[in-house]
Amino acid sequence: MDTSNSAASANKATLQTPKYPNQVTGMYILARALRMVGITNMYGLVGIPVTDFAYIAQEQGIRFAGFHHEQNAGMAAATHGYLTKTPGVLLTVSSLGFLNGLTATANATVNCYPMIQISGSSEREPIDLGQGTYEGLDQLSIAKPLVKAAYRVNKPEDIPTAVVRAYRAAISGRPGGVYLDITTPCLGAIMNMADAEKLFYKPVDLVPAMVPSEESVKRAVELISSAKKPVFLIGKGAAYAQVENKVKQLVESTGIPFYPMSMAKGLMPDNHPLSAISCRSTIMQQADVVVLIGARLNWLLSRGHGKWNSDTKFVQLDIDPQEIDINRPIAAPVIGDLDSSLTAILSQLGNHKTSMDPAWVTQLQAETKVKKAKLDERLQQNASTQPMNHWTALSAIKPVLESNPDVILVNEGANTLDDTRDAVNMSQPRHRIDCATWAIMGMGMGSCIGAAMATGKSVVAVEGDSAFGFSGMEFSTICRFKLPVTVVIFNNGGIYNGIGVNMSNDGDPAPTTLDVNARFDKIGDAFGAQTYYVTNPADLKNALSEAIASKKPCLIDVQLAADSGKESGHIGYLNPASLQNITV
């Protein structure tokens, strides 16, 4: 007799038998409502008043990942949403726990990741009267300006409706973060089971297609067809929409080159013959028609100004009409979901002959060849540098990651982010996750956990030592859930580098100085992970290969020179001038 299975069955039966079989609480109704819309994962940190709810959610079949900090749990939920097109769910306590999580929910909204933050909140009356209740904070009012939608639930009867509304808001139109404020009285309210069962329903057509107008498609196709130097500029919105097959058809049927934004890398292989990934400045200066596919003309593209040619005309495929004309006039806006818009454009393009100058592709390919040779030379020249710098480490990491294309790469830092993005070619969609639109630090470990749990795939994080510090304690969460995640930490002893000079000479470290002698591998040892401390590229290459193959939690501490790296990577121009001699 299999006693372990019998024991598990008995335990399950015990959990599913309520103390009062004919009554349920708001917590039970909330868990059931989440399951009715298909939620199977939840990320968060429990405490008053949501601890029991997390247990009930587990009993209802929702996998709960408990974190050390709500912001990191929120980053996991956001990454889950980006990779699955379904809302990632974050659970927090009230007050500061809510605020910690809200940073991630706001970031999800800016990045168009579908996410729902559920926070318990104290009873309303003493909050509204300012009477000093436990963790008394008007959470709904704080959340509203920072998220796509926000709702408060005061009665258990309203929970299923609120969950469906939150789900629809998170994934419809332009995706984003949604806040659900569930009061303590609502969570603890008791209903008869029979009455509660009548509340549940499966929503219909949660993400209806938004088909663009025929006129807009015709205008876009005519502009694309008439272009002499056109480019498809692909953003992470296209990766989220999972339209890679249509993008491939569009690129290869027209022969028009493409440029991917950072998280769109891999939607088309970086080394594709029509990839113009190395030709950003040339595109800005010379392209006459640029087709924005799930990309925005925000600061990452100089808001359409700077090096951009003032005569360049833009076609923009976007689901939100308010995104049109925000920085540059859009000659041909196509408003609709990307799948419908691309389908419509492809159906009409076949009736048009393109006017592209054949020398345009040849020019970009020649430039790409030169840039690739320079990158290869840089990697080769630094391949044996001791102590290692970023390029030395990347010369070892690049071939390992590119030979494991189904591994999801999480990447954050300053130089670590910029140099890894430039060095490592991607060939699979949605396999690169980084700090995205706001360029924030601290998404690393949360995104690793969300990616691993949402997809079941192996994950490698390439982190700067400062970036890792924002969420490093969550490596214990990776170990606790035995996730196939390898964390690679580039330690150069500082923010940007470890050679900053304290201008007061008072003996304190400089503002950008951390600890170049820190042994991050010891953190992994503490939680039972396989760990490596490497000081040369050969050992790094072997360690990374072994770690990926193990499909277990692993941590690789990569020792770099303290002077490896420069301030702000590629975006130092955003700093104001100090007029003083500062060593950073």
Description:
The chain has 584 residues and is α/β, with parallel strands linked by helices. The strands form four sheets. A six-stranded parallel sheet has the order 3-2-4-5-7-6, sandwiched between helices. α8 (159-171) links the parallel β6 and β7. α4 (70-84) packs across α19 (444-455) and α17 (390-402) packs across α18 (415-423).
Short key terms for the protein model shown above:
584 residues, alpha/beta, 23 helices
Break the fold down into its secondary structure elements and pairings.
Layout: H1 3-16, E1 23-25, H2 26-36, E2 41-44, H3 51-59, E3 63-66, H4 70-84, E4 88-92, H5 96-111, E5 115-121, H6 124-128, H7 139-143, E6 149-153, H8 159-171, E7 177-183, H9 184-188, E8 190-192, H10 193-197, H11 214-226, E9 230-234, H12 236-241, H13 244-254, E10 258-260, H14 280-286, E11 289-293, E12 313-318, E13 332-335, H15 338-349, H16 358-381, H17 390-402, E14 408-412, H18 415-423, E15 432-434, H19 444-455, E16 459-464, H20 465-471, H21 475-480, E17 485-491, H22 521-526, E18 530-534, H23 537-550, E19 554-559
Parallel strand pairs: 2-3, 2-4, 4-5, 5-7, 6-7, 9-10, 9-11, 11-12, 12-13, 14-15, 14-16, 16-17, 17-19, 18-19
Antiparallel strand pairs: 1-8
Protein name: Oxalyl-CoA decarboxylase
EC number: 4.1.1.8
Keywords: Lyase
